[in-house]
Design a protein that fits this description.
Strand order of the largest sheet: 4-3-1-2-9-10
Oligomer: single chain
Shape: globular
Largest sheet: 6 strands, parallel
Structural class: alpha/beta
């Protein structure tokens, strides 16, 4: 069975793992949470590149044949270089600017992302290619991923501050909200509740899953991709504290959404 390797700095990439399990993909999934270096969004680009290289190598050593960088920040910092260094398919994340620009009626969109993503060359390229006679506001949300992992967002004071920030841009005519971090996927239900009904929310999870299915379908029949009886645990490795990661998982389950069953282990970084 082909193994799919996925990594992120924390729980954000589990949004992709959840989607793959929900569609009954019959593939072994191995996930690495680099929580010893969480969050990536505030780290130097060199650190993120080095971590990304290390994690891809570990996933390859674990037998993975397709890699998903389940992090917009790491994709912005390292994707192209990693594709040159490793001879296997590597799927990256990028903000869903293209579909948002195609949908927007007002021509005004708001991107929520980490500081490194909002200042990165990859976003500049997306704007150049897809934002034609439109306006993309880019808002660096420093600390938001941490608040999500700690389940602070549902608390009244954080929710009020987030709503106030969004309302400012909605008053400017924004009608599309682009989520530029896999952690933010867990906020979609909350964001719909605090946004006007006409606001459309875009994230990258579906695009990444569709790209993975496209790659897999090139090698096998579509009916071989799925198995409704696939109850295999997802192997989940962490580089930092298992207790801390398990607490973040508990927070997601209690406040945001369901997750697949995980077998959580500490990765040996000495290898």
């Amino acid at each position: 069975m082909k193994k799919i390797g996925i990594f992120d700095s924390g729980i954000g990439g589990l949004s992709i793992v959840t989607k793959l399990r929900n569609i009954n993909l019959d593939k072994k999934i191995i996930y690495i949470a680099d929580n010893a270096y969480f969050p990536y969004g505030s780290k130097d680009e060199e650190i993120i590149f080095n971590r990304s290289f290390y994690l891809v190598k570990r996933l390859v050593d674990l037998g993975c044949e397709i890699i998903i960088i389940a992090c917009n920040t790491a994709s912005s910092a390292a994707l192209e270089s990693l594709r040159q260094k490793f001879k296997l398919p590597i799927i990256g994340m990028e903000p869903a600017v293209k579909p948002a620009s195609q949908y927007s009626k007002s021509g005004k969109m708001l991107l929520l992302a980490t500081p490194l993503t909002t200042s990165g060359n990859r976003l500049s390229m997306l704007e150049k290619n897809y934002v034609k006679n439109q306006k993309l506001f880019s808002l660096p949300m420093e600390g938001l991923a941490e608040h999500i992992e700690k389940a602070n967002i549902p608390k009244k004071e954080f929710l009020s501050e987030l709503k106030s920030t969004l309302d400012h841009y909605y008053d400017l005519g924004v009608d599309c909200l682009v989520l530029g971090c896999t952690h933010y996927h867990f906020l979609k239900d909350i964001l719909f509740k605090i946004s006007p009904k006409h606001i459309q929310i875009f994230d990258s999870v579906d695009g990444v899953v569709n790209r993975l299915l496209q790659l897999l379908s090139e090698e096998m029949n579509t009916d071989e991709l799925y198995n409704e009886n696939n109850s295999e645990l997802v192997d989940c490795y962490v580089t930092g504290s298992i207790a801390s990661f398990s607490k973040s998982i508990k927070n997601v389950l209690e406040h945001y959404c369901d997750l697949p069953n995980l077998s959580i282990m500490k990765i040996n970084e000495g290898r």
